[in-house]
Amino acid sequence: MNSNRYTDRLRHHYELYFGVTGNKVKWTKGSTHKLHPDFYILEIESSKRRAMWAYATVGMSLDRNDNNLIELITYSPTKDSSRVELLTVNASFHRNSEALNLHHTVFIGQLTNFDTTCDHGFISLPYLDGKELEIFQFYEKEIHCYWYIPITKAERDFKMMKGCNALEDLFEEKQFDHLDMRRKSVVE
User: The pTM is what?
Assistant: First the structure.
């Protein structure tokens, strides 16, 4: 997989979908040397398509030869460097520890400048955007761009007991604010 061609085409995929040019951002603290050298986060300003900032991994699955070819997207109400760190840590986990994929949950822990009640992440279908954003075709490979949703430990435990569909139904029923990193858990 040609890494420059991959990252250029994926960036174009995101920018075409959102209708704005993104800003290439790299998190430079921690063990980022374990990531592919061409990996970065694309920071996309609020636009007509989305009245929120988008943060997307570019190159999270570079050089993978399995069925875990994913990239992640998360949203913020404002410009937020903690989202860059959040996605970078998850990309490093995906590359160096355990492959991530749809419906997986991840422990976030305490990251730099990350004031939140959501200490886990949930990888979901991009319900806000659909297949147009989700599917990135790179030659014969299909890469999935999934929605990374910060969640609480109680929500993670609920998902482990009841399943991912039950958690997603609860999010919809409670109309949770996925942009609020300090929100109360939807699980009572």
Answer: 0.93
